[in-house]
Specification:
Elements (H helix, E strand, L loop, with lengths): L1 H9 L11 E5 L5 E5 L10 H13 L8 H15 L5 E21 L2 E2 L4 E2 L11 E7 L8 H4 L3 E5 L2 E5 L9 E5 L10 E5 L3 H12 L3 E5 L4 H4 L15 E4 L1 H12 L5 E22 L3 E10 L10 H13 L8 E8 L15 H14 L4 E6 L6 E7 L7 E10 L2 E4 L4 H13 L5 E4 L20 H6 L4 E2 L20 H18 L4 H5 L2 H9 L7
Parallel strand pairs: 6-7, 7-11, 11-12, 14-15, 14-16, 16-21, 19-20
Antiparallel strand pairs: 1-2, 3-4, 3-13, 5-12, 6-13, 8-10, 9-20, 13-15, 17-18
Helix pairs in contact: 2-12, 8-12, 10-12
């Protein structure tokens, strides 16, 4: 009962009032024009349409940055958008050295072990591989020259645990929408963290190790093709992922107490290529832009289904008279999410950071109003449960009714946060937390919260008004979970809600959109440091 009472205080007391279906505005030619104040769902893409788009996206397969699959997908997006009247197209090209996996293999004690995937950007062993003694360095023990030099290191991937309380006021939360009371207030969100391989491979290279084997708690079938971390910088050693059964196979070999030799092959190549950010601009009554952004390189539809919503958002907005679009809307389909050091080793931001820097430069001249970043909409919830029949590790099982918690960091403007809150509630986008940020507040910097958890982060750090929905599905890094990992009904509700957000951003006073961003930009100009 105490939990229910506390949640009652955190949830809204009443649903927001529903506005009238339309309003009359005057066009540039002094003609009365009827404009919607909310998206008509009958005029927006159906669940079936969104599902068809997701299935088409899935046909491209995994899309590492600059790969043929990625290039084909971006071209397909442009073809889809070209059928929408009024859009104007341009591209931002980038020259990169693409990392290509040619072959991966592993033997332990002379016995073949199935490999799920190489660690992206691993050092290439060439086709011959490397052979060395195998050592297990447990989690929590540092990889050092003393325990790893000249050896192949086996490492267990950790799981992250984030308390749910962080997503509620007064911590990082601004408001929570969970009318079904499905979130355990005292529980936590957790998922396996292959990003830890970044630290492991760097430590292994520094220690003089010859390779790293990362062991997942999940079965091979659920992690095959896993793609993380995705820095875009070469590691000094080769690395590979194996599933829980293969991890047990290796540990059983080591348990005999005799020295075990392992042979690891990660044959890879770096290939010069060009990748691009696609921009599709829908002119409005003024040149000041609302930028709607998502990335195009990813492993599965749930990782980057934002572009699918953006196609249908563009289609809907283009059907309205220009008088109903007081601001220009630019749709940015960004590259480099899986190549975070897109322009060099010193800046980690991918294509989103490059675009954010351009928008930052335009903002004070009135060229930019706000940025809406869309990621992982309608991500179906999967729970990690014990595997049957005593098999090692865990397996991911889809929930029959729940989606993953949608985290929506919004920059420091109360009107902007209230706008998002109203549309989330109206469209019943359940299990949504509107947040102040996804890192602890630092009063010595601008912005106060440096992380927005994903693509929204560089725009926030460049002091632009930002709305950045993102979820953290456990299926994120694996291409083995396709379109079925999306709850299409939930995706459509979120798509309608954020299309309404963009619709309302059109006439909203810029002072209300910006909120404290205005004073923070002044503080930055006076010498207050930004985020490191």
């Amino acid at each position: 009962m105490r939990r229910l009472a506390l949640l009652a205080l955190l949830l809204p007391l009443a649903a927001p009032a529903q506005p009238a279906a339309a309003q009359t505005v005057t066009s540039a030619g002094n003609t009365a024009v009827t404009c919607p104040v909310r998206v008509d769902p009958a005029a927006f893409a159906s669940e079936a349409r969104l599902g068809a788009l997701a299935e088409q996206q899935e046909t491209f397969g995994p899309r590492p940055t600059g790969s043929a699959a990625h290039t084909g997908y971006v071209d397909w997006l442009e073809d889809e958008l070209a059928a929408i009247p009024g859009l104007q197209f341009s591209s931002l090209p980038y020259e990169i050295d693409r990392w290509d996996s040619l072959a991966t293999g592993l033997t332990v004690g002379g016995t073949a072990v199935q490999v799920a995937a190489p660690v992206p950007f691993s050092a290439s062993t060439g086709p011959g591989g490397v052979t060395a003694p195998l050592v297990h360095v447990p989690a929590g023990t540092a990889i050092t020259a003393a325990n790893a030099a000249g050896k192949i290191v086996m490492r267990d991937l950790p799981w992250t645990n984030v308390p749910n309380l962080l997503f509620y006021p007064p911590t990082l939360g601004y408001s929570m929408y969970d009318p079904g009371l499905t979130i355990n207030l005292l529980g936590s969100e957790s998922m396996e963290a292959p990003a830890a391989a970044d630290t492991d491979l760097k430590a292994a290279a520094a220690a003089g190790a010859l390779g790293v084997i990362e062991v997942s708690q999940l079965p091979h079938a659920q992690i095959q093709g896993m793609y993380a971390p995705y820095e875009g910088l070469p590691y000094g050693v080769p690395g590979a992922y194996v599933g829980a059964d293969q991890g047990k196979q290796i540990k059983d070999a080591l348990a005999a107490g005799q020295p075990v030799q392992a042979a690891l092959t990660v044959n890879a190549a770096w290939t010069p290529t060009t990748t691009r950010t696609l921009l599709a601009t829908l002119p409005g009554g003024s040149a000041q832009k609302i930028v709607v952004e998502s990335h195009t390189d990813g492993m599965s539809p749930v990782w980057d289904n934002g572009p699918l919503t953006m196609i249908e958002m563009a289609r809907y907005l283009s059907s309205l008279p220009v008088a109903c679009r007081p601001r220009t809307v630019q749709f940015a389909f960004v590259t480099g999410h899986l190549y975070q050091h897109l322009t060099g080793p010193d800046v980690r931001e991918g294509g989103a950071g490059q675009l954010a820097a351009q928008l930052d430069a335009e903002y004070d001249q009135g060229g930019v109003s706000s940025v809406v970043v869309l990621e992982h909409l309608g991500a179906r919830r999967y729970d990690a449960v014990a595997r049957p029949n005593g098999l090692p590790g865990k397996q991911l099982v889809a929930s029959s009714s729940l989606t993953e918690l949608l985290l929506v960091p919004v920059s420091e403007s109360t009107p902007l946060r209230e706008l998002v809150k109203g549309h989330i509630q109206y469209w019943d986008v359940r299990r949504t937390a509107i947040l102040k940020g996804l890192s602890a507040a630092d009063l010595a910097t601008v912005p106060r919260h440096c992380s927005f958890g994903g693509e929204g982060t560089p725009y926030n750090q460049h002091l632009l008004p930002v709305i950045a929905p993102i979820a953290a599905p456990k299926t994120l890094f694996s291409p083995q979970f396709g379109a079925e990992a999306i709850d299409l009904a939930a995706m459509r509700k979120a798509s309608l809600a954020f299309t309404d957000v963009v619709l309302d951003l059109g006439p909203m006073a810029q002072s209300a959109v910006a909120g404290d961003v205005t004073s923070m930009r002044q503080m930055r100009a006076s010498g207050t440091p930004g985020c490191a």
